[in-house]
Write a structure and sequence with these properties.
By secondary structure, the protein is an alpha+beta fold. The chain is 50% helix and 11% strand. A hairpin with a 3-residue loop joins strand 4 and strand 5. Helix 3 packs across helix 5 and helix 13 packs across helix 18. The longest helix is centred in the N-terminal third of the chain and has 32 residues.
Length: 642
């Protein structure tokens, strides 16, 4: 009956005497008001953020200062050439009274000069960010390093202008000056996407430089005779076809912010036909030594709330942008595809689909799929309300019967991409199957309720190995989604993420923030979410997804699941908990923790297989992407010889 009352906002009846009786459901009107308010608020924030991004690094404070200056000059009778030009171009201004004319001229002059100032600052910042000397400057001052007189003088200025503490490293004067100017231009609180227009474009190397890098890349992996042959081919390419292709590359770099990012996404990720499981997707584990609650529904409800806060910060761009060394901004474009994103299988090349209007989470429990609306009536559900909805799913899943093929349907996302695309076109292109599949792919993310109880036991290392293996290649993970949350029976949690839409740094940032917010939300003494559900809000229960899977399709699902099981059986994954030292000790040795780990991996690989392999590294250009680099063979041989 509650759902029937909520279905109609108002209704009217005409009696026998011709009178019209109107019945209003105030709760529905309140929901409509809240929903409208939320939509308008989102549009206002979106327009505001777009404007801030278009004029950054200029700020509203600088506009106000310029307006006051121009207004004072008008009052004092001091005019500029800009004011004269404005008055000549708009003769109607002379018909206005002096006060209105002064305000209008000051407004126009201020805005024009402010826009020019914004463009100048943007070009200056973009030019500054092309400087790479800070990457090679000596880093890693120890705690015993005493600050110089220049450090003591510049520390208060940097703290005042940027709101950040100056870097304690012993950097050169040039690098310190560069950092100070960048921080002054960027300001104290930039928004998430405000620096995107200031990011430098990826430079196009010359053909000669490209061939030198290519030969340097392949040298550790080929013999002398093969290297000589490749060297001759490189010379022929440089003097022939390479010149024409270089011109095409220059043309593309003019109208593209990053001339290689779309090719990288297309050929490295989307055209890959092998399984995403193990080969591409990656995982993130919960804290090993800390568990805020043992109740699964409460932990998942709090974590969903934290994820929704992260999404809200992305939408409103209140999430702080990322910086290298606290100064050089990193591209944040990939944050926009964190939620409501899925990889759609195709016969030749997959595509990434992003949805903007998703309000639900796809939940898998006991072999059944459900849709959990996290935003209802124009407002977000509280943690305690989400917990009650999750409890409803847990209870309903024990009595509901799974449709044929529903339990193992996610196994199709772990199979070969072309087979999954053909299967999808044949069996999921119409009817209930198409609708249910669309709801999973459109969801904010996928939440999986797992009945196992993983964790960490020093006396049982297999427990941690199984935990990691479940997160990397679990049976119920929907590998096409941007990320999956797996919540276990003992309250442990983990994430599995698809790789093509973003680098792992995005998910690591998400996990770090959400784990912290999860703890801040807290739980009561019994381990449940805090708070009470609202009495004036009747929540509809989560909706069960319906499937009509044919026997032929069920056989294909079972076959794909068996293939996935064989891949898992062939995987050796062991986790070592290292607590002797961490990144702090590595930094005291004046080394980068990332470089330390990369060299350690190279050394371990060489000791087992006497060869080297490529490792990725990141660069700060517009539309960040991972670019594979190979270390110099002589450097690695020197390392092995130590």
């Amino acid at each position: 009956m509650a759902e029937a009352r909520l279905a109609v906002a108002f209704q009217f009846q005409v009696n026998d005497e011709g009178e019209i009786n109107v019945y209003l459901d105030r709760r529905i009107l309140v929901d409509i008001y809240r929903s409208t308010k939320r939509v308008l608020s989102r549009k206002i924030f979106k327009s505001r953020n777009a404007f801030i991004q278009s004029v950054f690094p200029a700020t509203g404070v600088s506009w106000c200062i310029l307006f006051l200056v121009f207004g004072a000059m008008q009052v004092l009778g001091e005019t500029t050439d800009t004011v004269h030009v404005i008055q000549d171009k708009i003769p109607q201004l002379h018909r206005l009274d002096p006060v209105t004319r002064t305000l209008l001229v000051s407004l126009i002059s201020t805005t024009l000069l402010w826009l020019v100032w914004s463009l100048f600052l943007r070009l200056l910042l973009k030019a500054l960010l092309t400087y790479k000397g800070w990457m090679w400057s000596p880093h890693g001052a120890t705690v015993d390093t005493k600050p110089s007189f220049l450090d003591k003088c510049t520390e208060p200025l940097i703290r005042l202008l940027s709101g950040k503490r100056a870097m304690p490293w012993k950097l050169s004067l040039r690098v310190k000056a560069w950092m100070g100017v960048c921080k002054m231009i960027i300001g104290r609180r930039p928004t998430l996407m405000s620096l995107q227009n200031c990011m430098p474009k990826l430079p196009v190397p010359s053909v000669s430089e490209t061939m030198e890098r290519y030969l340097l890349t392949v040298r550790p992996f080929v013999g002398d005779e093969e290297y000589e042959r490749l060297n001759n081919l490189a010379e022929d390419f440089k003097n022939g076809l390479g010149k024409r292709l270089q011109r095409y590359l220059w043309v593309k770099s003019w109208w593209s912010s990053n001339y290689v990012s779309d090719w990288w996404e297309q050929y490295v990720y989307l055209r890959g036909r092998s399984s995403l499981m193990i080969n591409s997707n990656y995982y993130c584990l919960d804290s090993l030594m800390f568990r805020p609650t043992h109740i699964r529904s409460a932990r998942l409800a709090n974590f969903i709330t934290a994820l929704l806060k992260f999404k809200s910060d992305i939408d409103r761009q209140t999430l702080a942008p990322r910086f290298a060394m606290g100064t050089a901004p990193l591209c944040c474009e990939q944050y926009g595809r964190t939620f409501s994103t899925t990889r759609i299988p195709q016969l030749v090349q997959d595509k990434i689909e992003h949805y903007n209007d998703a309000r639900h989470v796809a939940v898998y429990c006991n072999g059944k799929w459900y849709v959990l609306n996290v935003i209802t009536g124009g407002r977000q559900l509280s943690p305690i309300e989400l917990q009650k909805q999750i409890i409803w799913i847990e209870e309903a899943s024990t009595t509901d019967l799974a449709s044929p093929g529903e339990t193992d349907l996610s196994a199709m996302t772990s199979g070969e991409r072309s087979k999954w695309a053909s299967f999808r076109d044949t069996h999921f292109s119409k009817g209930a199957n198409k609708h249910s599949l669309h709801l999973i792919e459109k969801s904010l993310f996928v939440a999986i309720l797992d009945d196992s109880e993983p964790g960490y036991d020093r006396n049982n290392p297999d427990m941690l190995d199984n935990y990691a293996k479940t997160m990397l290649c679990g049976d119920r993970i929907w590998f096409d989604k941007s990320f999956n949350i797996v919540c276990f029976k003992n309250g442990k949690i983990g994430l599995n993420a698809e790789h093509s839409w973003a680098d792992a740094t995005i998910i690591s940032h998400l996990a770090e923030e959400c784990f912290n917010w999860d703890i801040e939300l807290g739980f009561d003494e019994e381990g449940n979410c805090k708070g009470e559900p609202r009495d004036d809000m009747i929540l509809s229960p989560p909706r069960r997804l319906r499937w009509d899977i044919s026997p032929e399709a069920v056989e294909q699902i079972s076959a794909t699941r068996e293939e996935a099981q064989l891949m898992k059986a062939d995987l050796d994954l062991h986790i070592l908990k290292h607590d002797v030292y961490g990144k702090g000790f590595i930094k005291t040795c004046k080394m980068s923790p990332d470089a330390y780990i990369q060299l350690a991996l190279q050394l371990a690989h060489y000791k087992v297989y006497p060869s080297f392999f490529s490792l990725p590294n990141s660069f700060k250009f517009c539309h960040l992407l991972i670019i594979s680099l190979r270390l110099r063979r002589v450097m690695l041989e020197d390392l092995v010889a130590l």
